[in-house]
Each structure stands twice: as C-alpha cells, then as structure tokens.
Amino acid sequence: MVTYKDYKNKCLEDSGFKKEYDSLQPEYDIINVMIKVRKEQGLTQKQLSELTGISQADISRIENGTRNPSLGMIKRLATGMGMQLKLEFLPVSNQLK
C-alpha cells in the first residue's frame, strides 16, 4: 500500500510540481502556526472569533486553506492570541541573482 508520504515524495520528484508545492509553503507556515498557537492556548475557533472580531467561518476557512487572509487579518489573529506578528524576508540560497 502506498502511503500519502510516499505519494507526496514521488510527486515532488517532478520539478513543476515541486515548484508549485514550494510556492505555497508560506501560506502553510501561517496556517500551521495559527492552529498550533490557538490549540496551545486552549482556544476554540469560536473563542478566537470572539477575541478578534473575525467570523468563526473565516477562521475555519483560513485554517483549512480555502481563505487567504490579508496582512491586517493576520495581525488581528496574532493580537487576539496575545502574540506579536513578525515578518522576515530571508535570502533564498538557490535563487539566481
């Protein structure tokens, strides 16, 4: 039986697929951190909604990757969880200059 991990690794051998997959990494990083912090704080989506004024439906959409939040919305989420938002621009070592 082929596992998801095996299937993903096989797909990542295709350069076009890998490029598209890698381009989505920042969005997945935001989603993963948001879910991790929310759960560490013992907050439900509804409670986070009440703290931020962002609808529970929008929080759900962000967490499942079907809503692309604005920077302002990300800041509101961070503030609602008692966090400070920090963005970084890091050099890409394999990018042509």
In short:
The protein has helices at 4-11, 15-23, 25-40, 45-52, 56-63, 71-80. It has 97 residues and is an all-alpha fold.
Task: Tell me what you see in this structure.
It is built from six helices and no strands. It has 97 residues and is an all-alpha fold. The longest helix has 16 residues. The radius of gyration is 16 Å and the shape is globular. The protein starts with a helix and ends in a 17-residue tail after the last helix. The relative contact order is 0.10.
Record keyword descriptors for this entry.
globular, mainly alpha, single chain
Strand content range: under 5%
Number of strands: 0
Largest sheet: none
Query: How far is it from the N-terminal to the C-terminal residue, by CA?
Result: 43 Å
- Count of discrete alpha- or pi-helical segments spanning 4 or more residues: 6
Helix/strand order, N-terminal first: HHHHHH
Secondary-structure-based class equals mainly alpha
Mean pLDDT level: 92
* Global shape: globular
Uncertain runs with pLDDT below 50, 5 residues or more?
Answer: none
